[in-house]
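User: Assemble these into one structure.

Assistant: Restating your components, then the assembled model:
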Amino acid sequence: MTGSLLPQVIVNGLVAGCLFALLGLGFGLIYNTTQILHFAHGIVYTASAYVLFLLYGRLDLGLVPSLAVASIAAGALGLGIFEGIYRPLRARGASGLILMIGSTAVFLLLENLVALVFGNDSQVVAKGVVEAGYQFGSVVLTPVQVTTLVAGPALLAAVMLSLKTTRVGKALRGLACDAFMARVVGIPTGRLERLVFLVGSLLAFVAAALVALDTGVRPDMGLIAVLLAAVAVIVGGIGNLYAGVLGGFLIGLAQNLGILYFSPKLQNMITFGILLAFLLFRPTGLVGRRA
Amino acid sequence: MDYGLHLVILACIYLVLAPSLNLLVGYTGLLSLSHAAFFGIGAYASALTGLRLGWGFPGGLAVAVVVAGVLAALLAVPSLRLRGDYFILGSLGFQVIIHDVLYNWDPVTNGAWGLSDIPRPRLGPVTLASHGGILLLYAPIALLCLLLVWRVAVSPFGRVLTAIREDETAATALGKDVWGCKMRVFVMASALAAVGGALYAHYVTYIDPTTFGFVESVYILSLVVVGGAGNTRGPVVGVVVLLLLPEAIRFVGFPTSVAGNLRQMVYAAMMLAFLLVRPRGLAGEAVLS
């Protein structure tokens, strides 16, 4: 019985892995370059999903314009949080502790704002009748899941490639390696930090849009998203900009295999069990550099 | 009159929760987002001893403290050895796990339905059912916990905690057992949170997992940040101010569907505002800046 479900579970794991990798890459980019644990990444995720819901689900605008506007909203929000909260706090010499508390406050504030406006229940974003998914052998996938498997790795590859080859990418890697030296060498760290928040937020939005169109939106969807992003980054390894991708796929597969072999209730425990195991035995993660 | 007593009893419970979190956040510089999880562990542990074993209040309290302490120690081992950032994430992960366990472990915790008909505090043959009676028991307990936190804060151990917050490397260089101290304060703070849980369970007589989630952890944190971290009176001020505020909001007549969200927004907004404008809070030391 379990054997026949295995291909489906593995594919589900890959789909989830794409989403977690997107989240992990964005969160990891921000953390490795700015040393900020951007907990509010989760609310950028949630808010942009809700903008999509408002435009596409409620106001019946076209999918493409809705996606475009929502992505701009995501970038603007992420950037706004950086400029409005993190930069002023950092300018006053705030420690990581303060930034994290501030990030948590922003997260909770905006999450409740979303709940106030849209209600506390989950909402469906996708339109039309629920159709049968596509069948590939013994595996069934919804259209959104297929999109995820195609667009996800494509986007991930694009970002990772630009990090590796473009000048901006190299500057970002330099910033992640040693922020002080980067400034000494003349790299415009301020502009790069803004860029990183922009790109990170856009990556979060892609994941949010895919989830929204597949299963809908809820005000608290951001909490588990940002937690998964953080776990993906830690498991992948701190110090490596791409590690979040690796961690994301690992967690995605582990979660779904866990559902198959144990129980769906244990999903989160598997994820955080893996986190705790890594913290105990391998804090540098899979491919990380520093502890 | 009864409502006034109700507020004071709630204050007693939070006067155990906030100062203990302050020990972690304000004195040691450890941002723990799992305080509500230990609050919940204490509540469920004590409630279950009363419901399933028929134990009285002291027994339930003891079990709550021990269970929370052991779990805190287990969590501390992987999380405290490394940087502060890891600890924050570890504590958040633990918070989520505990919430999941409370929510899904139906045979023990009754899952989403929660535990109802929790007995009021019983000391031997005497059961305290009235607000006044409960207050007579809870107030001294709260004061004792406050006294304990104060004694720890002004002790040499407390000074080492402050040193850890200010400069961990220097503290280690001076030969202080940084990891050991962090572990001890974390276990102590979590055990105190469990005491708060026991107080809460036997007063409210119904508990379910939603009370002990991430939002509650942030609420307790806001009491510390707004009231002021780093000294003993800050969290007390925070409890007094932030507990009375929602009561004022209550009388403005918002519909219940939005009241919860508005409440959380107010706490989050206040926390953010204080961080940006007055990090020391209302009555704290300038430690969060």
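Chain B has a mean pLDDT of 89.
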